[in-house]
Amino acid sequence: MDKVFISQLHVDTIIGVYDFEKESKQSLYFDIEMLSNIKPAAASDDINLALDYAKVSERVIEHTTAKPVELLETLVEQLAKIILTEFNTPQVTIKVSKPAAVAQANTVGVEITRTKAMS
């Protein structure tokens, strides 16, 4: 399997447990890797046969900004489910970074890998 990836997708959104975090948007950065067989798209030069990273990016932005959650863990689980359900990939790895969360750290975050259930 090949990989299609999105690196450092920047989204400003409301996220956090504490009251002060719910008062203004914070920056999140997403790194997303999706397994895909790129051969059909490469052979035909047809975007319809490709795992479209632009559409995945739009969907991540849309979901992340639509309904605030408190935990990064909740958000990445929701996004993994969306990507596995709506896009043609059997596996996704999502890393989300929240640079402003801990003053003494460059960034903190969560990374998960999820696989589509085979029926």
Describe the 3D structure.
The chain is α+β, with helices and mostly antiparallel strands and 119 residues long. The chain is built from 3 helices and 4 strands. A 4-stranded antiparallel β-sheet has the order 1-2-3-4, with helices on one face. Helix 2 (53-66) packs across helix 3. The protein starts with a strand and ends with a strand.
Mean pLDDT: 94
Q: Name the structural class.
A: alpha+beta
Task: Report the oligomer.
Answer: single chain
Regions with little confidence, pLDDT below 50 for 5+ residues: none
Helix/strand order: EEHHHEE
Number of helices: 3
Distance between the termini: 20 Å
Question: Which outline best applies?
Answer: elongated
Please list the strands of the largest sheet in the order they lie side by side.
Answer: 1-2-3-4
- Cα-atom radius of gyration: 15 Å
In short:
The protein has helices spanning 39-44, 53-66, 72-86; strands spanning 2-13, 26-36, 91-98, 108-115.
Topology:
Layout: E1 2-13, E2 26-36, H1 39-44, H2 53-66, H3 72-86, E3 91-98, E4 108-115
Helix pairs in contact: 2-3
What keywords describe this structure?
119 residues; alpha+beta; 4-stranded antiparallel sheet; 3 helices; 33% strand
